[in-house]
Amino acid sequence: MKKLFFWFFLIFFANCANKTNTVSSNNTKKDAQFLHILSLAPSITETISLLGASENLVGITEYCKYPQDLLKDKHRIGGFTNFNFELISALKPDSAFLLPIHQKELENFKRLKIDCILIKQDTIDDIKKSIFTIGEYLDKTDTALKLIKEIEDSINNVKLQISKLQNKKVLMIVSRDQTKLSAIFAAGAKTFYNDIINRLGLINALAENNIEYPMISIESIMAINPDIIIEIYSPDAGMTARRTILELKNDWKNLKTVNAVKNNNIFFIIADYAVIPGPRIINLLEDFRKIFEKCNLQN
User: Fold this and answer.
1) CB–CB of 118/98 below 8 Å?
2) CA 229 from chain center: how many Å?
3) pLDDT at residue 221 greater than cutoff 60
4) pTM: predicted TM-score of the whole model, two decimal places
């Protein structure tokens, strides 16, 4: 049975990977162990590292921080979109893994004869396909399939453990004013957060909103009336720099008609992996499991 599962995943992800990944190709591919790779996003860097191929990385962004011990000596080629092409040229990379947001830089990479492999990570399936694509390129297919199976197993296990919350409405906030409930941005339908919530058998409170991260008002939150509110931030966002979690939570106390407030179902996740759609989504799923197990189900 395990062999059958393995070959099913191998065939499925091979088909996915062959469709849309290499957007420019200038070189004859070297043996994987000798490839010099650029990663243009933290999620890609984490994937390459967890596949056991961090030695292939010659350039990463300023925002690539995990795993710290494997990245401390890597060249930083710029921020999220502003790249140092003089340094990139000097590094002589064979390939670059990039996100759709980086497509405007394709001509610059082509000019340097660098192969570009486009990675999408908008959904859980995208994340799994990206792991396979990178794993296949770096001759780490077996490890990639193991990571993919761990993600799928984690989803299924969490869903089973929180079955009592099926169809409960969850509002996931990703940004707001640090001192009060204003300038609130939450996860809409076209986000990997939405996909996680759906896969767990719950409902994204903004599932009808096709903007990735729309700004919503207090009045909108009261009208939506979510059962659970989760605020999700990177530590770099500074939400707890001057205020405690309890103080942030108290910002909600006046919205007494909202189910999540009424039942004390307001939670916070502050972790770097919580905002990076990569293989450490397993950590985020575990955070969700702990939160949902604490939820008060009173009306």
Assistant:
1) yes
2) 19
3) yes
4) 0.86
